[in-house]
TrEMBL record:
<keyword id="KW-0456">Lyase</keyword>
<dbReference type="InterPro" id="IPR011060">
    <property type="entry name" value="RibuloseP-bd_barrel"/>
</dbReference>
<dbReference type="InterPro" id="IPR013785">
    <property type="entry name" value="Aldolase_TIM"/>
</dbReference>
<keyword id="KW-0665">Pyrimidine biosynthesis</keyword>
<keyword id="KW-0210">Decarboxylase</keyword>
<comment type="pathway">
    <text>Pyrimidine metabolism; UMP biosynthesis via de novo pathway; UMP from orotate: step 2/2.</text>
</comment>
<comment type="similarity">
    <text>Belongs to the OMP decarboxylase family. Type 2 subfamily.</text>
</comment>
<dbReference type="GO" id="GO:0004590">
    <property type="term" value="F:orotidine-5'-phosphate decarboxylase activity"/>
</dbReference>
<feature type="active site" description="Proton donor">
    <location>
        <position position="97"/>
    </location>
</feature>
<dbReference type="GO" id="GO:0044205">
    <property type="term" value="P:'de novo' UMP biosynthetic process"/>
</dbReference>
<dbReference type="InterPro" id="IPR018089">
    <property type="entry name" value="OMPdecase_AS"/>
</dbReference>
<dbReference type="InterPro" id="IPR011995">
    <property type="entry name" value="OMPdecase_type-2"/>
</dbReference>
<protein>
    <recommendedName>
        <fullName>Orotidine 5'-phosphate decarboxylase</fullName>
        <ecNumber>4.1.1.23</ecNumber>
    </recommendedName>
</protein>
<dbReference type="InterPro" id="IPR001754">
    <property type="entry name" value="OMPdeCOase_dom"/>
</dbReference>
<feature type="domain" description="Orotidine 5'-phosphate decarboxylase">
    <location>
        <begin position="18"/>
        <end position="263"/>
    </location>
</feature>
<dbReference type="Pfam" id="PF00215">
    <property type="entry name" value="OMPdecase"/>
</dbReference>
<dbReference type="GO" id="GO:0006207">
    <property type="term" value="P:'de novo' pyrimidine nucleobase biosynthetic process"/>
</dbReference>
Length: 277
């Protein structure tokens, strides 16, 4: 039985630094790397990322949609990426943002968190906007298998604010998500399995994160405009729980393995300098 996700993430960050690198093989990036927009090009991209970063970076975050776009051949590449990255020592956070109800959500949980599933990752992203309770099948299976999940709370896309910052009772919708996650993590050490997703570029959130005993994924560092100063402004004293995520800012340095690895390590070291211990 593996250790709980919160403990494994804490260890990975202490050994490798607080950085998540997104593996987002969109067609323009494949072209920049001189690769064809085919399953073969996709595999070359994915395995280059593993070779360059999985031995050094704490968390790799493949975006499932870019693999699914190639059908079964692309999903097979994703399966191989997950296995190879984990074998090299990286934690794999599969960015799928699934959100559904009942037996369908339970099936998604089986696909991404169950023992023996070829798509099983260390954690997944999920959407709570069908009600936080709809995530219970994922939370339960994550707890059973020592895996985790990151729940969308306050995202950087402009359309998100109308829902996430809307007031329900005396709290914003995003705050209710934070509070529900905190309740699921209560009493867990060093961190619970239920993380949050809060964009690095969202500005002042108004969120009370003091009770959230879990990790916070902060996408948007680098090419999307997020800076280390933004991280400090958004998260303040909660920055020690934050896992910043960068994708294009690192990936644009491929396809040379050494150059790509160097870019990832520079990003990691820059974040580590700003990260409280």
């Amino acid at each position: 039985m593996r250790a709980p996700f919160g403990a494994r993430l804490t260890t990975a960050v202490s050994l490798r630094g607080p950085l998540c690198v997104g593996v987002d093989p969109h067609p323009a990036l494949l072209a920049d790397w001189g690769l064809p927009a085919t399953a073969a090009g996709l595999e070359r991209f994915a395995m280059t990322c593993v070779e360059a970063m999985a031995g050094e970076i704490a968390v790799l975050k493949p975006q499932s949609a870019f693999f699914e776009a190639y059908g079964s051949a692309g999903v097979a590449v994703l399966e191989r990426l997950i296995a190879a990255a984990r074998q090299a020592g990286a934690l794999v956070l599969l960015d799928v943002k699934r959100g559904d109800i009942g037996s369908t959500m339970a099936a998604y949980a089986q696909a991404y968190l169950a023992e023996g599933s070829p798509l099983a990752a260390d954690a997944v992203t999920v959407s709570p906007y069908l009600g936080f309770g709809s995530l219970d099948p994922v939370i339960e299976l994550a707890q059973q298998t020592g895996r985790g999940l990151f729940v969308l709370a306050m995202t950087s896309n402009p359309e998100g604010a109308a829902v996430q910052r809307a007031v329900s009772g005396e709290r914003t919708v995003a705050q209710t998500i934070v509070d529900e996650a905190a309740a699921r993590n209560a009493g867990r050490s060093p961190l619970g399995p239920v993380g949050l997703v809060i964009g690095a570029t969202v500005g002042r959130t108004g969120l009370d994160l003091s009770a959230h005993n879990g990790a916070i994924l902060a996408p948007g560092l680098g090419a999307q405009g997020g800076t280390l100063a933004d991280l400090r402004a958004v998260f303040g004293e909660n920055l020690r729980f934050v896992l910043p995520s960068s994708s294009r800012e690192v990936l644009r340095h491929g396809p040379d393995v050494a150059t790509l690895r160097g870019a990832a390590l520079r990003a990691r070291d820059a974040v580590a300098l700003a990260h409280p211990h």
